[in-house]
# Entry
Amino acid sequence: MKHIFFVEDDLSLINGLTYALKKEGYEVENARTMAEAETMWKAGRYDLVILDVALPDGTGYTLCEKIRQNSKVPIMFLTAADEETDIIMGLDIGADDYITKPFKLAVFLSRINALLRRSGDFMQTGETLSLNGITLELLNGEARKDGELLELTSGEYKLLCLFMENPDRVLSPDQILASLWDCDENFIENKTLAVYIRRLRMKIEDDPGAPEKIVTVRGMGYKWSTGDRG
# Structure
């Protein structure tokens, strides 16, 4: 049974979503303040964290940053903070997904299922893949650049896998988004994908301003370039 940590102070939302998640077979624990969340996080073991941005004594952004200091657990923001700058900040500090209120319950549950599947998939193969100085250790869900471990979120890792498993192939934004979230509809806007691409480039490119691995193909999408011109 997957264990979800839900940090939210709206009691009606807590009750409704906890009921829905338990019907899906998940175990749910809730914290309503930053202080309570920090204590519970240290004492518990969770498979997914869902955070609101606005908490009575702090922000979900701060809690996300603290969790990312020592954990790769999938993190989702579920919040009314729907400005583009809010979304970019949430993804930049390490969240794997960002859903704004109001939202459809079916979409919320689909995205949770996708995050947990994606996290579990990392342990299902023993292969190693190396290209352009980047090595994927698929057994343990890790990536290295020139031998140095890269600190990637699960979303960044899945995106890197997608590119490296399709070298020199142009992938459209729709293809990338469908692979990342396993959804039947495009619930994620292209601006969110652009944040993922930029964040991943910052970690794997020698010069993120002039990327040589993940390159933009104008009007078509992105591709992992091996540098092979033949």
Remarks:
- The CA atoms of residues 24 and 109 lie 8 Å apart.
